[in-house]
Amino acid sequence: MSGLCYPVSTQKPEIPHRRIHHGGCGFGDDERALRLPWWDLFPLNGTASGNCLIEVKPNDAKGIAPKAAEDAVAWKEIVRKYQKPSTWRALWQIVDTLVPIAALWYLMYLSLAVSWWLVMPLAVLMGALLVRVFIIFHDCGHGSFFKSPAANNAVGFLAGILTFTPYYHWRWEHAIHHGAAGDLDRRGTGDVWTLTVQEYLESSRWKRFAYRLARNPIVLFVLAPLYLFVIKQRFPSLKANTRERHSVYAMNAALLGMAVGLSWTFGMVPYLLIQLMALMVAGSAGVWLFYVQHQFEGVYWERGGDWSFVAAALRGSSFYKLPRVLQWFSGNIGFHHIHHLSPRIPNYNLEKCHKADPLFQGVKPITFFSSFQSLAFRLWDEKGGRLIGFRHLKGRQRP
């Protein structure tokens, strides 16, 4: 069973109940308030600004380790040490990611004159590197990669071109995910479509067919990523505000410019084939990582009134322990429990933070091979408090 292996504490620490404006998440006034841990609401200089309303409730410590529940301030100090960005580490991560990508484009250009059998493995490798680019993009969206907001926004936009993702629009939707992960009452934005057993049984035949199709591995990990990155992200959400909408349009213009330039260099058909191949690899790997991070045995889900941010981070986000080479390509995002506890920690500090306190190390890891068990999970069983597969529905009647 994954997650934290200790009894639930009945003692709640005193945590301030605050509603503040927090810069950078791009929420409009019509969005529901996010509930985040109170130490993450403030930048390192102790100030707050912006237009995103965030709500923190005292039950954010509910369902966590007794040791941690005794002193939430100690947690703040543990994670704060790792929230400080390093300009040199960030720059080196850009160099050791983008230089190989540029080299691969050049090698693919030379290989086209020889054989497509040489081009295809290079495109696959570039797709793997695009996963790492997306983690840089992701950290910029959280304002954690660089200390400078301007640097985060600039690098985030450029990384968004390589990953076909509009920066501000994605950042807005991702903020919703962080504020609602593990909350059954706030599903639907930035997450994998997940129904409860009761919801599935009460659904129409068409909806049940659509849900089964959406959860099919070929659809979920092959077709859906291409649809997401190539088509869906070319259009803004109807709920997006002006900045988020404009970021989609700006990204589309940038992608058009990149496509024209590379098509002129490689030829339109070769460029499109290379780009689609790389995006398929990157998208499939990215969706798989995201899936395993929130769909695993022992994962935490609760209804809104009982939902806890901290429990959702440490028990609702996995510790995906990957081999070193895959950890490098995935930008340390396997330490997802740490990332959800404090999104301000840059990816290059996640492992250090994980090793800094026994509380974090108490999270049972999911290994590369054991992660494939997650493919069997399809529905959330509220009565059993666990994810189950469709085969467990036998004998259950529709109401």
Structure description:
- There is one protein chain.
- The chain is mostly helical and 399 residues long.
- The protein has 16 helices and eight strands.
- It has helices at residues 66-70, 72-80, 87-111, 116-141, 149-163, 167-180, 197-202, 205-214, 217-231, 242-266, 268-294, 309-314, 324-329, 336-341, 350-354, 358-361, and strands at residues 3-4, 19-22, 52-55, 195-196, 319-321, 363-367, 379-381, 386-388.
- The strands form three sheets. Strands 1-6-5 form a three-stranded mixed β-sheet. It has a three-stranded mixed β-sheet with strand order 4-7-8.
- β7 (379-381) and β8 (386-388) form a beta hairpin.
- α9 packs across α11.
- The protein is globular and about 60 Å long.
- The model is unreliable at 1-71 (pLDDT under 50).
What attributes characterize this protein structure?
399 residues, disordered N terminus, single chain, 16 helices, globular, mainly alpha, 3-stranded mixed β-sheet
Task: Quickly describe the structure.
The chain is 51% helix and 7% strand. A hairpin with a 4-residue loop joins strand 7 (379-381) and strand 8.
Largest sheet: 3 strands, mixed
Strand order of the largest sheet: 1-6-5
Count of DSSP strands: 8
Compute the CA-based radius of gyration.
21 Å
Please work out how many helical segments DSSP would assign: 16
Q: Please, what is the average pLDDT?
A: 83
DSSP helix fraction: 40-55%
Which stretches are low in confidence, meaning pLDDT under 50 for 5 or more residues running?
Answer: 1-71
